[in-house]
Structures are given as C-alpha cells and as structure tokens.
Amino acid sequence: MTTANPLTPRQERVLSGMRPTGALHLGHYHGALKNWVRLQDQHECYYFVADWHALTTHYESREVIEKNVFEMVIDWLAAGLDPEKCTMFLQSRLPEHAELFTLLAMGTPIGWLERVPTYKDQQEKLKDKDLSTYGFLGYPLLQAADILIYRAKWVPVGEDQASHVELTREAARRFNHLYGREPDFDDRVAANLAALGKDSAKRLEKSRKAFQETGDQKAFEGAMGFLATAPALQPRDRERLEGWFRGTGKAVLVEPQALLTEASKLPGLDGAKMSKSYGNAIAIREDAASITQKVKRMPTDPARVKRTDPGDPDKCPVWQFHQVYSDAATKAWVQQGCRSAGIGCLDCKQPVIDGILREQQPMLARAEPYIAQPKVVRDIVDAGTDRARSTARETMREVRDAMGLNY
Ligand code: ATP
Ligand code: MG
Q: Closest ligand 1 atom, CA of 281?
C-alpha cells in the first residue's frame, strides 16, 4: 500500500465530497459525479465520503450512515471513478480536517455562517429535524477545511453548494491575510529572487512596482506567467513570490473555485430539486421496474387534464428530464406533440424511461464485481485514505507553522 502521491503537486487539484445518507440519485450524478469522472483524467482528484457532514443532519440516525458509506463508494465506482486515477477516502479517518476546522473557526465571524443561504433553507425544509445545532451552523466551515486542506483549485459540485465554496474562498483569504506573512518572509523572498538570477529579479522588481503603484495589469500578468513556468522555483516558492508581488504575503491556503455541470440543479419527479429527503429521487442503481413506475406516475403540466388538452412543456417536470436525456429530434417531437396534444403524457415519458435505463446499464455492470467483493471496496478506501492523509498532513504542517503553533 502506497502513501506517496504519484501525481505532481503542480497539477491543479480537485476536491469534492458526498454525504453517505442514502443511495446516490440522478441529481448527484448529473449535478456532480459526472464531472468527477471527467476530471480524474486531467487532474489530481480527491473525493471523500463526508460522514461527518452526514452527521450534521443525521446525528440521531447513525445506522443510515453506517449502511451507506461503502454503498456510496460502489455508486461512485459504478459511475466510472477509477481507483487508479483518483483518491477516494473517508473523512472521519482524517482528524486533520477537524483540526483545520477548529483553527479556521477562531477567526470566522458567526455572521458569515448565518448568512449562508442553505442554513435557513435546510432548517425550513427539514422541519422534522432539529437543526439548530452548533454542528449544522458550522458545517460550511468544516467543508471549507475539507477543501483547503488539499489546497484544491477546483470543487465540482451542484449549484446548492456554490455558496459554500464562496465561503471557503473568504476563509482562505482571511487566513492568508492573518497568517500568510512568514516570520522570515523577506529573507525567503530574497533567496527565491536570487535563485531566479539577477536579470529576472530586476525585471520582477520593476513590474511589481508598476503593478503596486499604478495597478498595471499587463505587468501583473507578465509576472504571473513568468513565475508559473520558472524552473528554479518549487510550487511553494512560486506562491511566496506571487504573494510578494501582490503585496499580500504567502498564500498558505488556496482559494478554490466551484465547477458546475450543465444540470447543476436536476429536478426530481415533482419538479423540485431532486433530493432523497424530499422523496422525489431516482437512485442511480434503482431497478428498472421501479424507475419505469416512478416516471409513469410523474405529474405533468396540471393544465393537461385530458389527453386532448394541449400542454406546455415549460410547466412540466418531464420536460426537464428531456433536457438531460433526449436528443434534439426527440425534444422537438415533445415540444410539437405536447403543445398540439398530438402525443399523450405516457408517450412523452417513454424516451425518458429509455434514456435513464440506457445510462444505467454500464453502471450496473461496473458495480457488479464490487458488490460481490466488498473487501476490494474497503481496500480502495484504505489506500485512498493513506494518500489523502499524507497530503493533509503536509498542509497542516504549514498551517501550524504560519500560525506559530510550533512551540
Ligand atoms: P439529498 O439532497 O438527496 O439529501 P444531499 O444534498 O445530502 O443529497 P450531498 O452529499 O449534499 O447530498 O450532495 C452531493 C453533491 O450532489 C453536491 O455536490 C450537490 O450539490 C449535488 N447534488 C445533490 N442533489 C442535486 C441535484 N438535484 N441536482 C444537482 N446536483 C445535486
Ligand atoms: Mg446537500
């Protein structure tokens, strides 16, 4: 089992997680997981089972989480994640996440968390749960720690998570502002500049002056381009010089960016956001008969009471599924047929059913060997957790250094 990370730190990292609170559904797949699969070929990717996050809403039902941790990893493998290409790990095995969360919490205003839209939103929607807890309020900050500890640049998530990534950026900026100036910052900058050679150092000093005094954007871009490719610099040295150039100090933590898919908010059977807690979801490995039933029972445009009433696709949740599953010809057929009452709602639903089942076929096939050998799934998570740990520890060393916690 290897703990060394086979990929170079220069590649932009990707991080994302999912909560093991039930079987993954089409919203997870089209909103995020599809992007995860795509990214594993281009980036160093970390994907984690967010079991602590699951506890924020399921602290009274640990059995749900227990049951779904490895099931969810099987869903990921079914969707096409490849353990040779990405790192899959379990959040609760890495106390480093909790450590960074605690350290970030010290300087994070409570108002930042109260203003995150999902906070009030989820409390409203999940009325049967008491979510007036410290853990639930803090959960976006824990998420910030999850992301920042891998110094990830990209976070592939659904639209509902975008505000959490924004908070993460703020937390990183604040941390860098408070602690990014290493005690020996000036000496280190001088050493890094010396390594670049006299001429380059002079040019950089000149464009830094132009940038800081007049906001010269060209000077900025030129310098960033130069630093990004200078072979004499290690990644951390490059970041220090970037911070020196900007006048902000070293970026200990990296500001990430959300990465959305086209279907970044997939609706469920009733037209509201697909969610297991709203009972409007189709699981990615659900059996064919159940999928067929569910789609057949989907409500359609309420104005289409009789087969002969014309309808409006814009008012029908089935149309949203066509957007994801149908080609241009089928979509034109739906538009024309619905508005003219030329086709019935069941006719219209059939291509959606076919589309979901077709998409599911390779996933079921990929899941099969893992279902047969649960030990293999555990080994994948063990190996991934070891890899993640070595990266997380590296960042924590720097964080403690920056905060002066090395007495
Ligand atoms: P559920 O709402 O079904 O309980 P969840 O919100 O608990 O699921 P998370 O682990 O929070 O699941 O979400 C995992 C990822 O899937 C996140 O990136 C989230 O944005 C995305 N996601 C969840 N539901 C949808 C959806 N309906 N459309 C698009 N993306 C979604
Ligand atoms: Mg969610």
A: 3
Q: Helix, strand or coil for residue 258?
A: strand
Give ligand 1 pocket residues (Cβ under 6 A).
18-19, 21, 27-28, 31-32, 157-158, 160-161, 264-266, 273-277, 281
Q: Which domains does the chain have, with CATH numbers?
A: 13-179+255-264+371-403 (3.40.50.620), 186-246 (no CATH), 290-368 (1.10.240.10)
Q: Extract the tokens encoding 332.
A: 């034109």
Q: Is the pLDDT of residue 3 over 50?
A: no
Q: Which residues of 120-156 are buried (b: 16+ CB within 10 A; e: fewer)?
A: eebeebeeebebeeeebbbbbbbbbbbbbbbbbbbbb
Q: How far apart (Å, rounded) are the C-alpha atoms in residues 329 and 326? A: 8
Q: In the predicted model, what is the mean pLDDT of the chain?
A: 94
Residue nearest to atom 19 of ligand 1 (CA): 158
State the pLDDT at residue 251: 83
Atom 8 in ligand 1: which residue has the minimum CA distance?
A: 275
Work out the angle between the directed axes of helices 162-179 and 117-125 (0-180°, nearest 10): 140
Find the 18 Cα to ligand 2 centroid distance in Å.
Answer: 8
Q: Give pLDDT tens digits for 354-394.
A: 999 999 999 999 999 999 999 999 999 999 999 999 999 99
Show the tokens assigned to 49.
Answer: 């089972």
- Taking the CA of residue 159 as reference, the ligand 1 atom at the shortest distance is 20
3-state secondary structure of 365: helix
- CA 277–ligand 2 middle distance (angstroms): 10
CA 268 to ligand 1: nearest atom: 27
* pLDDT number for residue 235: 83
